[in-house]
Amino acid sequence: MNRIFISAKSDIKLHKLISESIKKIKKYKKVGLITTIQHLHILPKLEKQLSARKFKVLIGGQVLGCNIKNAKKIEKKIDAFVYFGSGMFHPLAVAYATNKPVFVIDYVLNNVVQISKEERDKYLQKKIIGRELAKQATTYGILVSTKPGQENLKTALQIKKKLEQKGKEAILFLGDSIFPQEEPNFLQIECWINTACPRIIEDAWEKNIVNIDDF
Amino acid sequence: MAYKLELYKIIAEIKKSKAKIVLLQFPDGLKMQAINTVKKIEAKTNATIIIWYGSCFGACDVPVLPQKIEEQIDLFIQFGHNNKTLKMGQQGVK
């Protein structure tokens, strides 16, 4: 099977949200632009508009839900990130993993919002607590996805071995999409260790769930 | 109410085939027994057991795995169904 990926470029025109954006970000001199692949071609236009209003603009480029290295690489050179696109999934990843304000120009909702400090702090606190709680569990469920880009069976087997050497119980689970809906079937699990998509832990899990790096 | 999971059969098969990694699939009503089943099998064999974290609607619904994972799994066991006697899917309603 031949696989082709189409980036599905947006034909959105930069419009009135620009003046609203400028109002909201005016106290930041240097801004970094980030987006998803559908809007990557918009960034140079946005750069032009913001530069004309005396902002110093750096283009970070494309971010994924699980990979924000293009934001990280410009983080130290800017005062705030401006994400152009729709939805909060991608800009949240940037807000969680950087120390700069993140503004979202959402052309679908037709508004410009800043991701609040509270939202970021809440996430980070949850992660810290999760990390501590994870140490205290005795029965772990290790989640592995069959999705080719998320699969991590090898690491999961290593984690199981390590936990068992420490006298803990570790049960392996393999699935396609890892949803919390299956969770009530496995009540003995005290803590999930997620080896699949790192954003899974943001879903509504009953029990504590941590990614490999937080464990 | 209990269901006979015939673990002795599974343990014998694992020992006979020297399976190292085994994948178990349980339908919803049996999933609550999955973890204890893993513990029992792991205690009696050297195999590493994995539970399928997903649907199991019938013998029609077995995990289709990417080659990279499938080649690491030596044995697959589904509980609660059989695939020998009745036709499945749209063939089944004919």
TrEMBL record, chain A:
Pfam families: Diphthamide_syn. It comes from the Archaea. Coiled coil: none annotated. GO terms for molecular function: 2-(3-amino-3-carboxypropyl)histidine synthase activity. One of its GO terms (biological process) is protein histidyl modification to diphthamide. This is 2-(3-amino-3-carboxypropyl)histidine synthase.
TrEMBL record, chain B:
It comes from the Archaea. Pfam families: Diphthamide_syn. Signal peptide: none annotated. GO terms for molecular function: 2-(3-amino-3-carboxypropyl)histidine synthase activity. One of its GO terms (biological process) is protein histidyl modification to diphthamide. InterPro entries: DPH1/DPH2 (IPR016435), DPH1/DPH2_1 (IPR042263). This is Diphthamide biosynthesis enzyme Dph2. It comes from Huberarchaeum crystalense.
